[in-house]
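@here heads up, posting the sequence + SMILES for the magnesium ion run so it's all in one place. Ping me if the SMILES looks off, I pulled it from an old spreadsheet.
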Amino acid sequence: MINFHQVHKAYRVSGHDIPALRPTDLQIARGEVFGIIGHSGAGKSTLLRLINRLEEPSGGRIEIDGVDVTALDAAGLRRQRQQVGMIFQHFNLLASKTVADNVAMPLKLAGELSRTAIEQRVAALLARVGLQDHANKYPAQLSGGQKQRVGIARALATEPNILLCDEATSALDPQTTGQVLQLLAEINRELNLTIVLITHEMDVIRRVCDRVAVMDAGVIVEQGPVAEVFLHPQHATSKRFVQEAEHVDGDEQHDDFAHVPGRILRLTFQGEATYAPLLGTVARETGVDYSILAGRIDRIKDTPYGQLTLALTGGDIDAAIARFNAGDVHLEVLR
Ligand SMILES: Nc1ncnc2c1ncn2[C@@H]1O[C@H](COP(=O)(O)OP(=O)(O)O)[C@@H](O)[C@H]1O
Ligand SMILES: [Mg+2]
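bot reply: prediction finished. Complex structure tokens:
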């Protein structure tokens, strides 16, 4: 649905070109939640804002639904922008307008609907984001999570088919973040809305995204299905984000378990395999014992996964490794 062909962007600052996005190819499919993760200054916002041409590319071609948006005239661009909603880290609501008026704003600007039709649409949108009782409040009277719900309702007002989210949960506490992400997942499913979401938190990617691109210094250094990148990151930047998400601190990262006897394995289970009693079975069959050195069981979007680091001692360890390899798990021998 969204296609970047060798798109690049440099900002001209006092006579110098600052490259923000190096020539990039990118394909985002209809209906997916596509995440872009990177540290501050990596070029995420630049990439996102090129999609609705809030930034003009320095070169390359951007197609949305087969239409070259880089070639649109002003009228074409206005129409195209109605197809692309956007939400922001700091919500960007108008403080002097009520919740309902904030949501009505894009519809009034578009000038296509009657007053009654706008009122009906706004009421439906506020109900959709759970704010039907707050229509006449002002932004200052709302919590951060409620403000972002207004932002989402406003972004959906013109019934776009793409929603761009620029660090939409970065100003929210963890619980509110969870609720807003859940709302985004719902509207993605129910409206078949394509969502492009940028963040510096791997946990946000893990919870809602289908695919992810990792950015570093204006370059996409790795991309793929979230399960792939999250469970088996290849690039150093991706690995760092995963370690941050797992709250592994600097010391643990470098723990080679030198003081632990035995062979050390890392097992990754996904989907149904997460609940299969493989560890017990293999222990009985091969006589190995193990201690669990690290572990986590969680979900990637809707798919459960488990990752365990084990030290194996006693019994037939090679047979145990072969048995794990034959099972529905991904196995890495760490030592
Ligand atoms: N309007 C601008 N003018 C000049 N430089 C900019 C502008 N916007 C972003 N940059 C620079 O481009 C790079 C990428 O920025 P940005 O896309 O905002 O990254 P991110 O969203 O990942 O933090 C940074 O070096 C930033 O300083
Ligand atoms: Mg940014």
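MO: The first helix runs from residue 44 to 51.
MO: One more: The CA atoms of residues 64 and 218 lie 21 Å apart.
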